[in-house]
Amino acid sequence: MNTPHPAPDLAMLLAARNFAGVKAALANLQPADSVEAMEPLSAAEQAVLFRLLPTEQATELFEYLPVESQEKLLHAMGNEDAAKILDAMAPDDRTALLEELPTQVCARLVERLSPGERQVALKLLDYPEDSIGRMMTSEYLVIRDEWTASQVLDHIRQHGSDRETLNVLYVVSRDGKLLDDVRIREFLLCPLDRKVSEVRDGVFTALHATDDQETAVASFRKYDRTVLPVIDGHGGLVGIVTVDDILDVAEEEATEDIHKIGGMEHLDEPYMEISFGRLVKKRATWLVVLFVGELFTATAMKHYEAELAKALVLMAFVPLIISSGGNSGSQAATLIIRAMGIGEVRLKDWWRVMRREIFSGLALGFILAVLGAVRITIWAEIFPNIYGEHWALIAMTVGISLMGVVLWGSLSGSMLPFLLKRLGLDPATSSAPFVATLVDVTGLVIYFAVAGVVLHGSLL
Question: I want to staple 409 with a disulfide (CB 3.0 to 4.6 A). Which of 261, 279, 329, 356 is the partner?
Fold first, then answer.
């Protein structure tokens, strides 16, 4: 059992020019712990530290850094040092970094790569942005149908040291087409003279290089795999995608959806590093849209000014009505957006969702209606003059309105993501604040329409 080592004070060691101590300290840490210990250092200090380390160790630590930190470190390092690390990086991690760099910087660094790695980098960068091709690596092992298990194991010993993963081996034809993927355990457990063609079953799942990254996330989730092969349009094996890259994509997608559900643009930089101007801009856009929407609420209130003048008591329940509708709409929108995101709900399920939300909205509205009516009844008993002689009609108005508003909120919140999806837009755009603003206006209309019917001839 390995006990964790305390994080060293790398800044103090560098200031004292104790370079041997820096190397010794990092040698005792896991890469993730080393990166955590480096966080307090400036980019210039990190550049000095990376020059001290062997290329293999420096590359391993560099791959653990966030992309934003990698960019800053590359700017602080000389071109030769940066190119040396990039040359040794895994192709998928290198591509993720290069696509974030300015075009001129990217071109300069790619030009300094070794010929072989430059060819790999350019090939991956040639795939569409956010495609699976940008995520894949060529560090895998291929085997042939006619090989025996003994030949496969010899091949692994000879060529497996610099591969991304050895858990799965890929059977390819003479022209490079993928025939199957086989777990290494199959060759470890079978007789050494058994051929690959006798071990494999021909059942495999592959991704297409031009598919979007969300497809890869869904496939990894569906098939519960740690690595999947990537093929081109002709079925040829062009790379593999590993689960560590998929986890990064899934985290980024979840973060983007959370930002949108919260009613703002996606922050493409960490919160503590994004500039103040960009932060305000990304938040202000949606706030302005929501503010304009809320202006319609004021317009609706003005429209019913005569009713309010006759029965001021109705004004007391306006916040209750519109907040209940907005809350139910936000709930429904959040549930459906997330269900769509993880594949639980598809576009064709809209009718089933609507049916469920109709009954859910009625049930939830009934619960709130009962609570509202009970509250009015109790207050009318305790304070006889608070609602006047028509308190029962007021209780009925509030109760019926709550049922209608909550039902409408549930339907609006659940159906809007389907509408956006059908139009080819991101369902997460139907954020909770957006739905709440929409329901605020319609909730007032429902409330005063019910009041006009129930209180006609009494208060109105």
Answer: 329
Q: CA 59, CA 415: separation in Å to the nearest integer?
A: 48
Task: Report the DSSP pairing between strands 237-242 and 227-231.
Answer: antiparallel
Q: For the chain, give the number of residues.
A: 460
- pLDDT by residue (tens digit) across 25-67? 887 788 888 888 888 888 888 888 888 888 788 888 888 887 7
For 321-361, write each residue's pLDDT tens digit.
888 988 898 889 888 988 887 778 888 999 999 999 999 99
Question: Can you tell me whether residue 231 is helix, strand or coil?
Answer: strand
Q: CA-CA distance, 456 to 201, in Å (whole number)?
A: 76
Do strands 168-172 and 178-183 pair parallel, antiparallel, or not at all (unpaired)? antiparallel
User: What is the pLDDT, as a whole number, of residue 313?
Assistant: 79
Cα 10 from Cα 106, distance rounded (Å): 30
Cα 424 versus chain centre, distance? 18
**pLDDT by residue (tens digit) across 94-136?**
888 888 777 777 887 788 788 888 888 888 888 888 888 888 8
Q: In what order do the strands lie in the sheet with 142-143?
A: 142-143, 168-172, 178-183
Q: Is 356 exposed, middle or buried (0-12, 13-18, 19+ CB in 10 A)?
A: middle
Q: Each residue of 149-186: pLDDT tens digit?
A: 999 999 999 988 877 788 899 999 988 899 999 999 99
213 or 297, higher pLDDT: 213
Using only the alpha carbons of the chain, give its radius of gyration.
31
Q: At what angle do helices 243-261 and 318-341 cross, to 10 degrees?
A: 160
Element at 253 (helix H, strand E): helix 243-261
d(CA 264, CA 285): 7
Residues paired with 242 in a beta bridge: 227
Whole-angstrom Cα distance, residue 147 to residue 285?
Answer: 61
Between CA 183 and CA 21 the distance in angstroms is 42
Q: What is the DSSP letter of 177?
A: B
Domains of the chain: 14-126 (1.25.60.10), 142-252 (3.10.580.10), 276-454 (1.10.357.20)
Task: Collapse the DSSP code of 170 into the 3-class scheme (helix H, G, I; strand E, B; otherwise coil) and give the result.
Answer: strand
